[in-house]
Amino acid sequence: MTKKLYIKTYGCQMNVYDSLRMADVMAPLGYSASDTVEDADLVILNTCHIREKAEDKVYSDLGRILKEKDKKKAKGEKMLIAVGGCVGQAEGAEIIHRAPYVDMVLGPQTYHQLPEMVTRAIRDGGGVVELEFPTVQKFDLLPESNIAQGASAFLSVQEGCDKFCSFCVVPYTRGVEYSRKVSAVMDEAKRLVGQGAVEITLLGQNVNAYHGENKGGTATLADLIAQLANINGLERIRYTTSHPRDMSDDLIAIHGSEPKLMPFLHLPVQSGSDEILKRMNRKHTAELYFDIIARLRTSRPDIAFSSDFIVGFPGESDKDFEDTMTLVRQVQFAQAYSFKYSQRPGTPAAVDDRQIEEKVKDERLQRLQTLLREQQTAYNASGVGKTMSVLLDRDGKHEGQLLGKSPYMQSVHVQGAEPYRGQLVDVKMTGAFLNSLSGEIVENTVNMRKAS
Ligand code: SF4
């Protein structure tokens, strides 16, 4: 009998990928995806611990799900609830203590054990917690994925982090760096292309630290990209998220030599002040960042950059913040994510006694975001009049509109493009906004590179 599985995914693309794999793991037990909590037999919250108040959000969602669980119980039906992801890993059994109606708690490294956990939860009436970092990697234990992701697909190649930035929980929740074998990545990539993927984004918390086993040796991320580029039907390759320290010479070089590698890089810098970078334990300086950007621009002149910024890190002076503004002015970003520093329990920076006043953080964030918005708007405007290849893979906001991504990760909306859904098409950009561009299909130059 088919059972219904509802997964709510919080946070990053790695969690989106993990949620798909959880659905794969549960499929042999008869679970199929549901869009609503109400009719679900199993609800999984695949959580994220990066943002402030992550736990509060999970507990408030759990309260709502409990109401649905109670309704099912009144009808004599059962609903199992699992909390997975980084909040699951960080909070552990505390979740069941605070919310006893939660049946299972698991971490990002243990979701391959879900079928067994579900069996135990049914047998024992809940209370199942699995958080151990396994000695056998979960990737080796997961079934082949049968869920098509569409024209643009994610593929996890690396997990975990050994960098221990002083503000971040990832090394504690995802564990040490691990890279999947090249053969496993290639198999999965070919399967995704067979299911219609034209673009694959390689995922990892420190994806450019990739060092996967390859025929008795070790492959770098550049080696992996070179192999993936040989797959017929795969037209675009991206990777995220990278650390400046791991931008190796061969990776910089392949941006110039491999046309399937898209000219866009998300490279978090966090701050422009060496003093703050040191306190963040980032293991790079502003100068190293400038050097990498310059070398990438030499390798691929049209490459666009995105980054992450934290303002108001403990001890950040006015001068430190001005160094960040100077870095932004110098690099010129096409996109960026910026946040006020918030204390993550269990991290070294959380107990630093030089915390910055909220008012100061607010002012700095506003100034930084104004500058970043100006740069993003100007970057998008510079695309107007140009023709770019766009992968139209989803519905736009308006009737008859499709949305896709330019090579530079800009969202592009096109009216009346339904016949080209899932395809790469040439689009002439006619308008630019802060977060997107609009364009028209260049009919006589449509790339008839079909999705499958
Ligand atoms: S490199 Fe990234 S994932 Fe690793 S600790 Fe630093 S911020 Fe977290």
CATH fold-level assignment of the largest domain: pyruvate-formate lyase- activating enzyme
Total number of helices: 13
What is the first-to-last residue Cα distance?
Answer: 32 Å
The portion of residues forming beta strands comes to 15-25%
* Unique bound compounds: iron/sulfur cluster
Radius of gyration: 23 Å
Query: What does the average pLDDT come to?
Result: 92
Number of domains: 3
| Spatial arrangement of strands, main beta sheet | 2-1-3-4-5-6
CATH superfamily of the largest domain: tm_1862 like domain
Classification by helices and strands: alpha/beta
CATH structural architecture of the largest domain: Alpha-Beta Horseshoe
Shape type: globular
Please identify the top-level CATH class of the largest domain. Answer: Alpha Beta
Q: What share of residues is helical?
A: 25-40%
What is the tally of beta strands? 21
Largest sheet properties: 6 strands, parallel
Low-confidence blocks of residues: 448-452
